[in-house]
Write a structure and sequence with these properties.
With 357 residues, the chain is α/β, with parallel strands linked by helices. It has 3 domains: 164 residues, 3-Layer(aba) Sandwich (D-Maltodextrin-Binding Protein, domain 2); 75 residues, D-Maltodextrin-Binding Protein, domain 2 (3-Layer(aba) Sandwich), CATH 3.40.190; 85 residues, Alpha-Beta Plaits (2-Layer Sandwich). Strands 1, 2, 3, 4, 5 and 11 form a 6-stranded mixed sheet that branches. Strands 8-7-9-6-10 form a 5-stranded mixed sheet. A hairpin with a 3-residue loop joins strand 3 and strand 4. Helix 1 crosses helix 3 and helix 2 runs antiparallel to helix 3. It starts with a helix and ends with a strand. It binds prephenic acid. The site of prephenic acid has 12 residues, from helix 1, helix 2 and helix 3. The site of prephenic acid (PRE) has 12 residues, from helix 1, helix 2 and helix 3. Pathway: Amino-acid biosynthesis; L-phenylalanine biosynthesis; phenylpyruvate from prephenate: step 1/1; Metabolic intermediate biosynthesis; prephenate biosynthesis; prephenate from chorismate: step 1/1. Catalyzes the Claisen rearrangement of chorismate to prephenate and the decarboxylation/dehydration of prephenate to phenylpyruvate. Its EC number is 4.2.1.51, 5.4.99.5.
Length: 357
């Protein structure tokens, strides 16, 4: 077969795909009408997971799960926009990893607001300026984002979904000759996480490492000066139009950051593979066994705990703590409901949501 005839076949399939996508959007438009008439929630992460799971089991071609997910998450994002355009705030600046996390769920067509602080993201959801807020919660190498955890206690928001993205850094520059680079911009932490690449590539060369406040800022600076470079996210290089010379330059490919999607009064239906986050303010934690007894209730019901963080209560001059606890399962599951009911006075449910493997 010639290239031309293969391309003709591709064109014919693309025509069919477009027709099918339009038919799908017509159904989605009707779902949107139905939902608006009953005031139902547009974003249904558990339904999206169900669709992707089903397609994965039916799949017998070259598409793997990440490919199915990438294409269908974009379709869902377009669908949701058609049903009701929803605004999404994220911890900026534009081109940050949080921006990347937001786009991975809400697609390229949603209306985004980059905000300067995690607190401002919480507040924009709280006041209804946006429907969803995306914030980082932890990195598997660097640990938790304390400000985000504390705001979960302070504010009255719920968790609609979690997103995990691998932290990949790119080396972006306008020059193709490394010897011409005089300055490399990035965040301190990114220099640390890419030290092997930087040491190997610039051994004997004179490039200076210049720390700046964000990797997006680094990309912007590299866009302005041809003899500089940025260690930044792919999305930042794309945003500021700086050519990517090397991709995935980080020392460890196990580096992942977890983000939460926040909303007001959001409740997911059980998906069959969920996680639940609660806040526990237990009384008398100075007495022996209070926390152990509480955790024993999970153990007794065979509920797997996936996280426990202690944070200061900041009540007077004491050393007392509250706990952020995450476990497998959904708050509608009978065993988890028993615990929540039993401790209704001291436990606040932040949400049950589809668990990212
Ligand atoms: O099934 C729904 O509730 C829809 O709104 C449709 C749809 C889809 O495109 O399939 C879109 C958005 C939801 O997040 C889940 C699924």
């Amino acid at each position: 077969m010639t290239l031309e005839s293969l391309r003709n076949d591709i064109d014919a399939l693309d025509d069919q795909l477009l027709t099918l996508l339009n038919q799908r959007m017509e159904l989605v438009r009707r779902v949107g009408e139905l939902k608006r008439s009953t005031n139902a929630v547009i974003y249904r992460p558990e339904r999206e997971k169900q669709i992707i799971d089903r397609l994965q089991t039916k799949n017998n071609g070259l598409m793997n799960r990440p490919a199915i997910e990438a294409i269908f998450l974009e379709i869902f994002a377009v669908s949701r926009n058609l049903e009701l355009p929803e605004r999404v705030a994220y911890l900026g600046p534009e081109g940050s990893f949080t921006h990347q996390a937001a786009e991975s769920r809400f697609g390229a067509m949603s209306a985004y607001m980059a905000l300067p602080t995690i607190r401002s993201v919480f507040e924009s959801v709280e006041t209804g300026r946006v429907r969803f807020g995306v914030i980082p919660i932890e990195n598997n190498q660097e640990g938790i984002v304390e400000e985000a955890i504390d705001l979960l206690l302070e504010k009255d928001l719920t968790i609609a979904a979690e997103v995990q993205i691998p932290v990949h850094f790119t080396f972006a520059t306008q020059t193709e000759n490394l010897a011409e680079i005089t300055q490399i911009y990035s965040k301190d932490i990114a220099f640390r996480q890419c030290s092997k690449f930087l040491n190997d590539s610039f051994e004997g060369l004179k490039a200076e490492l210049v720390p700046v406040e964000s990797t997006s800022r680094a990309a912007k600076l590299a866009a302005q000066n041809p003899h500089t470079a940025a260690v930044c996210s792919h999305i930042a290089a794309k945003l500021f139009d700086v050519p990517v010379l090397f991709d995935n330059i980080e020392d460890s490919d196990l580096n992942r950051t977890r983000f939460l999607i926040l909303a007001k009064n959001f409740k997911n239906q059980p998906s069959g593979s969920d996680k639940t986050t609660i806040i526990a303010k237990l009384p008398n934690t100075e007495s022996p066994g209070v926390l152990a007894e509480f955790l024993q209730e999970f153990n007794a019901r065979n509920i797997n705990l996936t996280k426990i963080e202690s944070r200061p209560l900041r009540e007077g001059a004491t050393f007392r703590y509250w706990f952020l606890i995450e476990c497998e399962g959904h708050s509608d599951d009978q065993d988890l409901q028993e615990i929540l009911n039993h401790h209704a006075a001291e436990v606040k449910l932040l949400g049950s949501y589809v668990r990212v493997a």
